[in-house]
Amino acid sequence: DGAAAQGAATKPGGLADGTRVPLLANLAHASDAATAIAFGAEGVGLLRTEFLYLDRHRAPSVAEQTERYVEAFRPFAGRPVIVRVLDAGADKKLAFLGHEHEENPALGRRGIRALREHEEVLVDQLRALVAARETTGVELGVMAPMVADADETEYFVELAREVGVSRVGINAEVPSAAVLADQLAPLVDFISIGTNDLTQYALAADRMLGSVAAFQDPWHPAVLRLARMIGAAGAAAGIPVGVCGEAAGDPLLALVLVGLGATELSMTPALLPEVRSELSRYTLAEARGAAEASVAARSAASARAAASSALSLSP
Ligand code: PEP
Ligand code: MG
């Protein structure tokens, strides 16, 4: 079909000066993998794994998980696949993790906080991921959601390495992780910025709440500055910094994020072609110029306008 033909013909992601920017897919189900390939995904930058756990009274067995991961990984043999361990809590409460009512669930016991109290669930998931890697030959990376500081980072990295994961990272989506990025980057093999939650927490605006939706804008210079801190820390530590929030699928913002230090971008597969084409038009120096203009702006709207005009002025 058309999408498949496009995938076969796609060049790898990169800027006009030859700077490589791998373009990866966000997947929410094992069965999304084929679509991602069709749109030219070079790998997976975020496999959300909640689909395996929702609507259940107990966690799935290692064997069952392995089977689903093998299904998701198979089309990506020899390529990078980043899986995020279970991000339960907030809007996705699970009885077997002992989730109770919370007044502010987005600020509650979610992500790595919940897993840490149920380490057996986390270890089973890591074992299944390693088994699926062995079967399929993907270049597996595993990251933890909602990591806030060095203590949580060290906890996750140690456990994941013990189980046999060789590329361990964090999803940087809590503002404290951005502020502390210089401490966290040397502990991990990669960082992936989650702009959805990073925006929600930076602007103190519940992403599920329509009345504050105007604040849920990753163009906000506060969010861009947090991304810049993570980009700088990643560069200093010599590790890749990805973006896997919705922001990476906005072509102009994708370019700005590269200017802020992102080295790879992951998005809904259907958005890959437009981002690929936008990136190919500009150099790294131009992306950096656009980024500099955006972070100096006072609002999300003016940050976008500043990026756009910086690029139209560049020779
Ligand atoms: C994010 O927070 O940006 C992210 C990628 O994760 P999710 O949208 O699943 O919370
Ligand atoms: Mg998130």
TrEMBL record:
Enzyme class: transferase
One Gene Ontology molecular-function label: phosphoenolpyruvate-protein phosphotransferase activity
Residue ranges of every copy of the PEP-utilising enzyme C-terminal domain listed in the record: 9-281
This protein's UniProt keywords: Cytoplasm, Kinase, Magnesium, Metal-binding, Phosphotransferase system, Sugar transport, Transferase, Transport
Cofactor(s) for this UniProt protein: Mg(2+)
UniProt superkingdom: Bacteria
Reaction equations catalysed: L-histidyl-[protein] + phosphoenolpyruvate = N(pros)-phospho-L-histidyl-[protein] + pyruvate
Keyword Cytoplasm applies: yes
Entry keyword annotation includes Protein transport: no
UniProt EC number: 2.7.3.9
Subcellular location: Cytoplasm
Primary location class: cytoplasm
Free-text function comment from the UniProt entry: General (non sugar-specific) component of the phosphoenolpyruvate-dependent sugar phosphotransferase system (sugar PTS). This major carbohydrate active-transport system catalyzes the phosphorylation of incoming sugar substrates concomitantly with their translocation across the cell membrane. Enzyme I transfers the phosphoryl group from phosphoenolpyruvate (PEP) to the phosphoryl carrier protein (HPr).
Entry's family note: Belongs to the PEP-utilizing enzyme family.
Protein name per its UniProtKB record: Phosphoenolpyruvate-protein phosphotransferase
Organism whose genome encodes this protein: Gryllotalpicola reticulitermitis
